[in-house]
Design brief:
Strand content: 15-25%
Number of helices: 24
Distance between the termini: 131 Å
Strand order of the largest sheet: 3-4-5-8-9-10
Oligomer: single chain
Shape: elongated
Low-confidence stretches: 25-29, 759-764
Number of strands: 32
Largest sheet: 6 strands, mixed
Length: 764
């Protein structure tokens, strides 16, 4: 009997099911496959991975003479995720020995350029950088930048942490090692591995359930991009069919490129970690290019189960899995036996705490968002994939937060209801270095630095005096003011009679002393003589968002400002008469590194520069002998800082605004309910400022007269020029060309000085 004859009875029985099955396959399977093919072409053909917007601090600029101490440099390194090391040879590590730090930098690119990775020795001396030396190139460096710390992550609709890279940017060991461990036949199969499927089916039969297994890299990618996580037969069939379609349409390189950016490698809160580049940052705090073989092996091992093999929670499991992968590397010839032995002996090396910062500094980030909205639409910001480079100085920010908290906590029970705010800027450029919106600075909430507008008290006075000093033919620091009661008529038949805080009238007073001691009566006399309208126009010219009160009480600070707005005013003084707009953003790049916007420091021509320098000299007398004497008498007196205290009516608000040669800081202390506090500017806000500058590396202000000013001895009773030997004579700066012409003589003092003769020469 022939084979055909033997099969004929079976064919008679099975032909209808056969033709029905073939019809279903052609009638349903064909269209179904076509639909899947269209879906694959649409999703995979134009694949775009969601990326969050990353926000960075400023890079730390170092050069010989830069103010810096060891505590601050350590703080900068830790915040930028640098880890201590014995030899500091791996990028992202550092070592400290005495006054020297060896730092293996990671390098970076930002809107102003960037730095290549280097191994640099930084030597400190006298609270400043003494020298920089590139140990790789064996040459000294004039200047160097440490890569900026990531301070926030702004996620859009997709809560996914991803850093998109291309295949050519990946370490070869990662690319080949992944295939060796997960899919050795990747370059040859059609998207599914039949031998792997057979093994998986056998495992399913043995376990009595559907288990994951036998998946190729293509199938794993399909699972993430197209399918849910269910374990049904239909999903497995879809997975296999789509894998075949993708393999038929796209190159192996394209598939591998997509896999490298999509693979799931961990979770931090609501943020899923996708892609090896993001995984490297998340687990090791370093880019992929800086990973060693044992670290690449751990990442490859995590593909099987990031939660199960979590090296922070289950280090023993992770170590075992990593070592299995390392053996696979060696068996396939990717690493040598000596390399295997070295890698097996190495620790896991993951960072103790994952660093995916999300609004670490909410008050500062509030300012960043406001400034970005001026140039980018809300839709563009929500789309993500931007790199935002800010002006934040992490060490200054942390020090400002600590200074506010420690000072208010130090007041004990009376400080429990107190709040505060701090704004720190670069005195020359207006870059915002730190911004504290209140106690518990890490918790989002009401931003007092930007939104709490309160009466600024005597901190307004320097601008009254500046308008006068800008008229050197009429006013100088030696001008004599009347510190006597004054009554100012107001509209509606009303009048205003201000009083000094000490309730004492001090009579004729030099202008410089009236400012240093913050005499109200003398200030009002001066303001009314200069002209209220002129002062109002000057303050309004700064373009502040707050309306300026034209009432005479403006002269004594009956005007509501936020700490940030007051910092905008004082920036004019700190930057030597340049109206530098405050800025928190340095630049913005897109996902491809293309510059979208750069925010440079404005090139502003100085205005009233000589008058500003006169005023700065006068404000240096406030800590020396005026209302901020606690500052001048402290070790911080060497900074020769210029500043002004302020206290609003009934002691509701305490202020201090002060600047050194490199930094400006404005501090406000008060209560949210606007009730009185027991504090003055000198006892409430000044201690915060002092505590901050005890840690903040900064440059002192010049103690002597600045260019454009002439020092002259004057008689304080009249303001006239006199001899240095005259009793009570004082030396004050004047704008060049406007020194006093009238002179007071003191014949008796001069004769006495002549009789005594010159002072004996020093024997030292």
């Amino acid at each position: 009997m022939t084979v055909r004859e033997r099969l004929r009875p079976w064919w008679a029985l099975l032909r209808w099911p056969f033709w029905l099955g073939l019809g279903l396959l052609l009638g349903f399977g064909g269209p179904y496959t076509w639909v899947l093919n269209q879906r694959v072409a649409q999703r995979f053909g134009d694949l775009e991975f969601s990326q969050p917007t990353r926000v960075y601090a400023r890079p730390l600029a170092l050069a010989a003479g830069t103010p810096m101490n060891a505590a601050t440099l350590r703080q900068e390194l830790r915040f930028a995720d640098y880890t201590p090391s014995q030899d500091a040879r791996v990028p992202g590590t550092w070592n400290e020995s005495g006054a020297s730090f060896v730092i293996a930098s990671r390098g970076y690119a930002d809107p102003t350029g960037g730095e290549l990775p280097r191994r640099v020795r930084v030597t400190l001396a006298g609270d400043q950088v003494q020298s920089l030396f590139d140990t790789t190139a064996q040459r000294p460096l004039a200047a160097w930048h440490l890569d900026p710390a990531r301070i926030a992550t702004l996620y859009g609709a997709h809560q996914e942490e991803r850093e998109v890279v291309h295949l050519r940017q990946l370490p070869p060991l990662l690319v080949t090692g992944l295939q060796a461990v997960e899919d050795r036949d990747f370059n040859n199969h059609i998207g599914i591995d039949f031998s792997g499927i057979a093994r998986a089916m056998l495992a399913d039969v043995r376990s009595g359930s559907l288990a994951q297994g036998g998946s190729t890299l293509t199938q794993q990618l399909v699972r993430n991009l197209f399918l849910d996580r269910s374990r049904t037969l239909v999903r497995k069939l879809n997975e296999a069919l789509i894998s075949v379609l993708i393999t038929a349409h796209y190159s192996r390189g394209r598939i591998l490129d997509a896999y490298m950016n999509e693979v799931y490698l961990g979770q931090q809160g609501g943020q899923a970690i996708h892609g090896f580049a993001a995984g490297s940052r998340y687990w090791f705090g370093r880019p992929l290019s800086a990973l060693r073989p044992q670290e690449i092996a751990l990442l490859v091992g995590l593909v099987r189960g990031p939660s199960y093999y979590d090296p922070r929670r289950y280090p023993e499991r992770a170590l075992q899995r990593r070592n299995v992968v390392l053996h696979e590397f060696q068996q396939t010839g990717l690493i040598t036996r000596p390399m295997l032995a070295y890698a097996l002996a190495a620790p896991l090396g993951v960072t103790p705490v994952p660093r995916l910062p999300r609004d670490r500094f909410p008050a500062f980030m509030d300012l960043v968002r406001r400034q970005l909205r001026q140039d980018f639409s809300a839709q563009r910001l929500r789309a993500g994939a931007l790199a935002v480079y800010t002006t934040l100085d992490p060490a200054a920010q942390l020090d400002a937060e600590a200074a506010l908290d420690a000072t208010l906590d130090g007041f004990g029970p009376r400080g429990e209801a107190l709040q505060g705010a701090v704004v720190v800027t670069d005195a020359r450029t207006g870059a915002v270095r730190a911004l504290v919106g209140g106690r518990d600075a890490g918790v989002p909430g009401f931003n007092r630095a930007l939104d709490a507008r309160r009466q600024i008290g005597s901190t307004i006075k320097p601008f009254v005096y500046l308008v006068a000093l800008a008229q050197p033919q009429q006013w100088s620091l030696a001008s004599v003011l009347d510190d006597e009661p004054i009554t100012v008529p107001l509209s509606g038949g009303r009048s205003w009679t201000p009083r000094n805080d000490d309730h004492i009238s001090h009579g004729p007073t030099l202008l410089v002393d009236a400012l240093a001691h913050s005499y109200n009566q003398a200030t009002v006399h001066l303001g009314m003589a200069v002209g209220l309208a002129r002062i109002h126009r000057f303050i309004t010219s700064f373009g502040l968002s707050v309306p300026i009160n034209p009432d005479p009480s403006l002269l004594l600070g009956a005007q509501d400002f936020s700490p940030y707005e007051l910092a905008e005013l004082y920036q004019f003084l700190a930057s030597d008469g340049r109206a530098e707009p405050l800025r928190a953003v340095r630049g913005v790049l897109d996902a491809d590194g293309k510059l979208l916007k750069r925010y440079d420091s404005a090139t502003v021509k100085p205005e009233y520069q000589s008058a500003v320098r006169l005023l700065t000299w006068a404000l240096q007398q406030v800590p020396r002998e005026g209302t901020a004497r606690a500052l001048g008498a402290s070790p911080l007196g060497v900074l020769d800082a210029a500043g002004k205290t302020g206290t609003s009516e009934n002691q509701r608000d305490a202020w201090f605004a002060g600047y050194t040669g490199s930094d400006l800081a404005v501090v406000w202390v008060g209560r949210d309910d606007n009730e009185p506090t027991p504090l003055w500017g000198a006892t409430g806000a000044l201690p915060v400022w002092m505590r901050l500058f005890q840690r903040l590396p900064t440059r002192p202000l010049p103690a002597a007269s600045m260019p454009g000013l002439d020092m002259v001895w004057i008689n304080p009773a009249t303001g006239h020029r006199t001899s240095a030997v005259c009793s009570g004579a004082r030396q004050l700066p004047f704008i060049a060309g406007y020194t006093p012409t009238e002179e007071d003589s003191c014949l008796f003092d001069q004769f006495k000085h002549w009789l005594q003769g010159p002072a004996p020469a020093s024997s030292g």
